[in-house]
């Protein structure tokens, strides 16, 4: 699957932070049960790559990827763990080259028109607008769609169930990202029913 197909497979890409490896598989199963199968596991914790591997092995219906990639070597590590895609908060020529070399579909982060153009120069036409709210949110995406209509965005950062519908209605938005599907307390408590409910609400944003 290329990155645009992955973006279109789910209206919301959950931004996942795994602190305890034992929660990775049940959390992934709870999200998939609610209809959210594209999962971005952020490389922010020591167990993140092990979590990706556990999900890739045990939850075949999930399309698991990695987020918060900031170092070139992480693409190869993520691929070895079973990640199908990667997300970065920003883009550098080194990261773009490393993703290409690893053959890893990448959703690079951008924040300005110049960064969008720089990412286009690296061959990307799908990007994460990050942090979306601070970048201008809905108004920014509408404005970028004028001169740069060929770019498909995944706005992430400050997006909620309430703000998502208007974003998803834009022609240049493929999906949105957000951490609201995986509240820390629910994950810690093993409250998978709550996670599945949040995932169902999110999946219903684009029936
Ligand atoms: C992140 O990378 O943490 C995302 O920006 C999540 O943002 P959110 O918590 O506002 O959804």
UniProtKB/TrEMBL annotation:
It is an enzyme of class 4 (lyase). Its EC number is 4.1.2.14. Signal peptide: none annotated. It holds the Pfam family Aldolase. The keyword Hydrolase does not apply. The keyword Isomerase does not apply. InterPro entries: Aldlse_KDPG_KHG, Aldolase_TIM, KDPG/KHG_AS_1, KDPG/KHG_AS_2. It catalyses: 2-dehydro-3-deoxy-6-phospho-D-gluconate = D-glyceraldehyde 3-phosphate + pyruvate. Pathway: Carbohydrate acid metabolism; 2-dehydro-3-deoxy-D-gluconate degradation; D-glyceraldehyde 3-phosphate and pyruvate from 2-dehydro-3-deoxy-D-gluconate: step 2/2. GO terms for molecular function: 2-dehydro-3-deoxy-phosphogluconate aldolase activity. Keywords: Carbohydrate metabolism, Lyase, Schiff base. Belongs to the KHG/KDPG aldolase family. Homotrimer. This is 2-dehydro-3-deoxy-phosphogluconate aldolase.
């Amino acid at each position: 699957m290329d990155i645009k197909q992955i973006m279109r497979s789910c209206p919301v890409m959950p931004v996942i932070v795994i602190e305890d490896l034992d929660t990775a598989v049940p959390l992934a199963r709870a999200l998939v049960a609610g209809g959210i199968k594209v999962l971005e596991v952020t490389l922010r914790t020591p167990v993140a790559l092990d979590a990706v591997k556990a999900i890739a092995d045990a939850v075949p219906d999930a399309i698991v990827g990695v987020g918060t990639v900031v170092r070139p070597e992480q693409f190869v590590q993520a691929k070895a763990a079973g990640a199908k895609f990667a997300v970065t908060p920003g883009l550098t020529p080194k990261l773009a080259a490393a993703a290409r070399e690893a053959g890893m579909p990448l959703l690079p982060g951008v924040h300005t028109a110049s960064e969008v153009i720089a990412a286009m120069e690296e061959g990307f036409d799908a990007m994460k607008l990050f942090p979306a709210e601070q970048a201008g949110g809905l108004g920014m995406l509408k404005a970028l769609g004028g001169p740069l209509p060929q770019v498909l965005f995944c706005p992430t950062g400050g997006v909620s169930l309430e703000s998502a519908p208007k974003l998803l209605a834009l022609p240049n938005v493929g999906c949105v990202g957000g951490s609201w599907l995986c509240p820390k307390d629910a994950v810690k408590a093993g409250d998978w029913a709550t996670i599945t409910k949040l995932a169902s609400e999110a999946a219903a944003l684009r029936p």
